[in-house]
Amino acid sequence: MYKGKEIYFFKRANLLVGDLLANIPQIKENIQDNNLLACADYKIPQVLRHLGILEYREDLANLVDSQKEIRHDKEEEIEIRACMLYAIELIKKELEQKNIYLNSSEIDNALWLLSKNPNFKGKPHHLTRTIYY
Question: What is the pTM of this model?
Answer without folding.
Answer: 0.80
